[in-house]
């Protein structure tokens, strides 16, 4: 199952690999920490998380974490520009709902890559049984909300996660085209 590769010719999504740890650590900044992880990554912590992601792929677990890759390496080859993941089960989701979360490293923001990654992920979500994709956005993160809207998600109100954190919900049928 970990051989899934999704591409539109500009962006390629493929499962996170052990050799992505270094680029991830180099790319992480205060915004990724604030919006996604809550604390700066350590090498040990990132290695453990990426191992967990590979185990989830191997066991068809509820988490499917992809690297967002695009051309731009020193040899013109693909580089890790960020991450996107889908959770097929999580607190606050109804049956059939899946959570989509994404983040780009600073040098890759503002190029439409996150929107492309979300759009690439939706057919995969549909094939895997997702009936509604949900993006949770901190109300103070307008860039993430803009990605959700550009990818065809519609606002679905505000909610609190199990830790009491308020977020805006955006939803979309992953089977819908356009």
TrEMBL record:
GO terms for molecular function: protein N-terminal-serine acetyltransferase activity; protein-N-terminal-alanine acetyltransferase activity. One of its GO terms (cellular component) is cytoplasm. Residues 11-172 form the N-acetyltransferase domain. This is N-acetyltransferase domain-containing protein. The lineage of its organism: Bacteria, Bacillati, Actinomycetota, Actinomycetes, Kitasatosporales.
